[in-house]
Amino acid sequence: MNATPTRTYNPLPFTDLEPKRFEDLVRQLIYEFRPWRRLEATGRSGSDDGFDARALEIVDAVNATPAVDQDETEDEAAEPGIPDRLWLIQCKRERKITPAKLKGYLTEIRLGPEEKLHGIIFAAASDFSKAARDAFYAWCRDQGLSEALIWGKGELEDQLYQPKNDNLLFAYFGISLTIRRRSQATQIRAEIATKRKLKKTVMSSSADVLVRDPLAEEYPHVKEGERPTKWGVFAPETLSHNGLEMSISWSYAFLDPDTGEWDAADGVPAMRRHHHWRVEDTQLDELDYVARATWDALPEENRAWLKFSGGIRLRDIVAIDDLGDDLFEGVHIYAPFSPMNGPFSCFWRWLELSPYSKRHDVPKLFHNDPSKRIDRFHARTKKTIA
């Protein structure tokens, strides 16, 4: 069974950010982490005392006054009787940090004589080993810190992929899960609308439809004696998980429903469609006559069709024109064509008993197993396999 490809994202490239931009990202991630009275980007000044941001947490966030403007002094900001908690944030945009190196960064932190550190957040663009994390928490305990957090790239990604931080994910890495979800919802709604219109127009009759490449500016002109490559006339069959299933061609076939043995004049399309772009071919007409004569001579219970069909994905259908034009009055479906497969994303062949078969005790559809193919039709009417 083949694996189904899925759309996934690679690890976020934190190390591609400039060091100061990485500091900005971490600082913006913690804006709503606690109710801050102020959050200062000290690392941007060049003399940071071993940390990149300094924050004051409001202890009684319910009764405290709202956060003050960043231009106010600390004395004006603090409410008497409610001391703020001091947090330090250290950011390192490095691919690897060993336990020894981590401890070295921590020992570089310098506090003022009156400052009491409550908590620390150490964020880095690397994965921390268990030894590094143990060293970090041991140092914090020795310093008497009440709270300590260490954020590696895994923790940073977890936060960035939360819906509330989608704006940061887009601003720093150009990825938006919200936009992607909206795009998916829009696409799904468009496919449902396409399916409904196909059911009302194409599937309401058995008439042929014209499938056109929307970029085929040469429509409807084709060089004399040539068939169009960017549009074609097909018969609709059904709507399924494959999208719009269409009959591309069919051939006269023999089928023994009891043994599964079969044969087909698969080198000749039976009953070629009549339309404006049909190319007259006397040789094909002659072979069609030979194949039809063989088919007519078969017992009715052995008459069958070898059908060749394809599926057009709903997402690939750009528009549906149910008015047609003077050259083809039926429905026009616009879908992009590829050089090899035309508008179809998948193909399949199967055998189907003639609707006039009297065998009602067997299924109507059969697999064309190559090992069960026998000779019933003239070799000229069959495909030559190189």
TrEMBL record:
The protein's name: Restriction endonuclease type IV Mrr domain-containing protein
Annotated source species: Bradyrhizobium yuanmingense
Phylogenetic placement of the source organism: Bacteria, Pseudomonadati, Pseudomonadota, Alphaproteobacteria, Hyphomicrobiales
